[in-house]
Amino acid sequence: MSLSGLLGWRLQAAREMAFVGREEELAVFNAALYGGGCSVLYVHGPGGIGKSALLRRFAHEADVAGRPVSLVDGRMLEPPSVVSELLLRDPDAVLLVDNFERIQGLEGWLRERFLPRLPMGALVVIAGRNPPDMRWQADPGWAGTLAVLPLRDLRAGDAQALMDSAGVPAELREPLLAFAGGHPLALLLGAAVAVKNGGRWTPNQDVVATLLDQLVGELPSAAHRRALEICAHAYMTTEDLLRAALPEEAGTLFRWLRRLPFVESSSLGLFPHVVVRELLEADLRWRDPEGYAMMHGRIHAHLAERVRTASDGDVLGAVAALLYLHRGNGADFRDRHDEGEFQEEVLREEDVGTLLRVATAAEGAASAGCAAFWAERQPEAFRLYRRTETGEPVAFSAWLQLAELDEEELTADPLVAMAWAHARATTPLRAGEHLAVSRLWALPPYRGNSPVLDLIQWRVIGNCLRAERMAWSYIEIALPNQAWVEHLRHYGMRDIFEQPRPGEDPYTLFVHDWRAVPAQAWLERMNHLPAGGPSAATAKLAVLSQAEFAEAVRKGLRQLSRPDALAASPLTRTRLIAERAGQTPATALGDLLRQAIDDLRADPRSVKFHRALSVTFLRGTPTQELAAERLGLPFTTYRRHLTAGIERVCADLWHRELYGA
């Protein structure tokens, strides 16, 4: 019988047709095969990345070169003596060891005892999930003799070629690539499902389970599984984050995570391979939706607090980590795991000339004049963005905080003037409040869907969430496309349709009232916003002037015995009541007013005010004359105490409305 009539030949032919890419790895192996390279190759990468396929191709190349080949599997390895006899006798022998992670305990024996006894010319390839022990590379003797080849995802063109060989229809390639990236096993399994389902692709639970078995395998315990699920859900996992979401044994579990072959590290923390991430996410959402929601809530609370408390230099990373949790709810997030193409700097005095050149190139002389004006008045508001590789400045942003404007400021920048006019015409600033205007100057190539705009967006969101006493925020966008408009609306920003023209291009301002939807409420709504759902700024808090607020307090005191009347008070829609969770608005308002009266007893100077308020509003005295009689006071004295007490309660509650409890 000819070889072509054997099943093994057919299997081999099919595998060779499906093999794509790996040119660099083949080049290193062939150099070693023909005597121009190293003697030991160590290939490592996560499960399903193509290590076994690569070793089969190495075996084919060695066979073509006429060299004797032994391909052994760590799961079923023959006694070392059998293999060693082959290699020790023949200087042309090639040994390929697959699944080395199953016999990782032999690594020291190989390095110290077996491999040094090989004849010159013999070639050994070790392939496993784990990288080699650092003692290989720390030993000068192995320099030039050992080559370490980390196996990564297939490049885009090679992934397309793999789908070609699997017969994936053209219309399914984009969703399949979005799921699998360049991971060979995920691509092949996805292709098989697509072909089986008649050209429809969805990562069903059978595919998820199969891939998890192959890529992740058995885990030591339930705590290890939860740690891995946290790592998959968060943008980057640090020991601090792991401790917040999984307090028990966080340090031990973090050290375990960083050793996993499908988990990588960056300066920001640990992150899993993209396919492993998606599989773990899909599996947990399907298997335990309640547990998934609880995990998400703990991570979200930790990251939101980190945004508020991070140092200025760490704000961008903190906001990016928070927004990553919302990547399935319409938040646009490009998954990057390092410091990226661009870096942010504070504005220095020597950068002002660069600012003017960039602003002129970006938007013309008039807009550059606005930039120069504010750089002189608020230099601390500016940030400069450079290309990391070249240092080229490509954009500037400014976060202008304004409590009042003089005539020169109103005429210097029409965008700021427009924001100021809008605030005054809607709900003006109250004592101690300010508004903020975000300004942006970016060179034309970086105006569209650019990573530098991500950094600027993260800075703006960080400023909003960290601000104190900010009433309004305004974000200006030049020539906004529909995608940008929808993106900002998703974040609860509404656009003002008038378009001022400080330069040659039209602008649109997007506005948010942070008194109506405070930062905490904004975060909670973002956290629960469904994909494609309504804007985050639906229900709003009432923003009352001081006079309106005081009148509502006076009326509320008179209505303390009538919960139905309290329910209609505008105070039930203020920050005061929003802070008192777990009660109906009417009950919360009644308790708040009673507590404000009671608090007057703590100040000896206000005890007389407390007595007047208590008798009048808390004890249900039918008339003020009877209240004065019960207190044993002349009516005019009682009225003076009552009026002063009401004013004191109004002032105390107004202070809490503005500054919080």
UniProtKB/TrEMBL annotation:
Residues annotated as domain Orc1-like AAA ATPase: 19-71
Source taxon at top rank: Bacteria
One matching Pfam family: AAA_16
Coiled-coil regions, chain positions: none
Gene3D superfamilies the UniProt entry points to: P-loop containing nucleotide triphosphate hydrolases
Name the record gives this protein: Orc1-like AAA ATPase domain-containing protein
Organism this protein belongs to: Acrocarpospora macrocephala
